Amino acid sequence: MKEERKRLRKKLVAKNIQMKVSIITSCYNREKTIRGCIESVLAQDYPDIEYIIVDGASKDRSVEIIRETIAGHEGKVKFISEPDHGMYEAINKGIRMATGDVIGLCHSDDFIFAKDTVSHVVRKMEETNCDFLYADGIYVNEQNTNKVVRKWIGGKYARWKVRCGWLPLHPTCYIKREVMMRCGLYDESYKIAADTNLLVNYLYNCHLKVAYLPEFVTRMRMGGMSTDSAKRKKMWDEDIRVYSGYGFKPVTLTKLMKMAWKVPQFIKAKFM
Questions:
Q1: d(CA 92, CA 205)
Q2: What is the rounded distance in angstroms from the CA atom of residue 37 to the CA atom of residue 129?
Q3: Is the dihedral of CA 108, 113, 117, 121 positive or negative?
Q4: Is there a domain that residue 10 lies in?
Q5: What does the H/E/C string look like for 207-247?
Q6: Which domain holds residue 253?
Q7: DSSP symbol at 180
Q8: Which residue, 200, 215, 196, is CA-closest to 159?
Q9: What's the CA angle centered on 181, arms 179 and 187, to 5 degrees?
Q10: What would the pLDDT profile of 186-225 be if each residue is shown by its tens digit?
């Protein structure tokens, strides 16, 4: 009877332990946008955030601006600047440095949507006891971040949808760190589509408990790596490689279906 009470007490204590969130920003030559990104993370009202910034030895003023912006917040920020081979290597470094229960990303030209965003994410993850949470996001004009270009409404998760090209918006995803260490980090052989590869792996292969938060959690500037029209051919080739690797056939149809999922988002951007 005493042992049973002890176990019950441990469970109750465990429920009251606050979830620690590690947010990672990778940066290279983003002097024009990195300050706003960092400020959106530091403004979060959630009390237990570990913020990790991994800079790839920027040649512009990024490092100077990062140091200015994090001044006074050193207790919650880890910052390194060293050469790397691209964004995915930088993110993987950040994940390995992280000590949080949950990993989230805020890219160097994006913003966390609101001051209470991380609080809402944690509440949903605790309510659902999920391994993987995704939400909605907004694409904004590169020069005027108040101008919405389109909205991405994630909708409900279903494994069959992944097989048909659907994926959540990558920067809206918050994932348990132990899941990432178990299921694998970003494949650095990809230059653009490592996020697609990771999401397909997690949501199709790993059989995780997935939750959807129907709220905006990020504002993304158009013109980033995945929205730059000059890089779309490379993205096409890498997506084909991803879907081929998971045995999705016909591969080209899966890629076309992935593109088709975006059409309703443009419509929603006009009428929502």
A1: 20
A2: 28
A3: negative
A4: no
A5: CCCEEEEEEEEEEEECCCCCCCHHHHHHHHHHHHHHHHHCC
A6: 18-271
A7: H
A8: 200
A9: 110
A10: 999 999 999 999 999 999 999 999 999 999 999 999 875 5
